[in-house]
Amino acid sequence: xxxxxxxxxLHTMDMEEVCSSCKGGYFHIAPKxxxxxxxxxxxxxxxxxxxxxxKCSLNVFDEDFSINQLNMVPHDVVMVSNGKVDxxxxxxxxxxxxxxxxxKKIFGIGLGQQLVKEAAAQAGAKAWKQEGTIxxxxxxxxxxxxxxxxxxxxxxxxxx
Length: 160
Fold this sequence. Notes:
By secondary structure, the chain is α/β, with parallel strands linked by helices. It has seven helices and nine strands. Strands 4-3-5-6-9-8-7 form a seven-stranded mixed beta sheet, sandwiched between helices. It has a two-stranded parallel sheet with strand order 1-2. Helix 5 (90-100) crosses helix 6. The longest helix has 13 residues, at 111-123. The chain is elongated. The mean pLDDT is 86.
């Protein structure tokens, strides 16, 4: 028989018991990998590589993404990246982000921060607090930074 354990489950289990119940079989310990749906507005290749090196699995969507398609892909976090967007598309992006608020954690970085904050304001999110360089609306699972510093991607990923 084969078992797959998460690191979280492993903490609560008696290893002797697990090993003795796997006689003739084996067990696999799977690492925690954060699954992120990235709404890419112009994120740099280095930032993608940094996220992969932080044990993240990425599904990358462009600014014309479909909410249905995004929701069909398994993810723990939606990240709205930094970059540039045609001003005509900004209201459409804000509306799409607004439909995601409260369902999953949403990270906004750079331009993504501005879009997430606008969507949050339209959705009625008012209570933001600052932790280091990260702005947080815990009630709505929103986490934003402006990406003016190199380590902010690593800092925001602590909330994944």
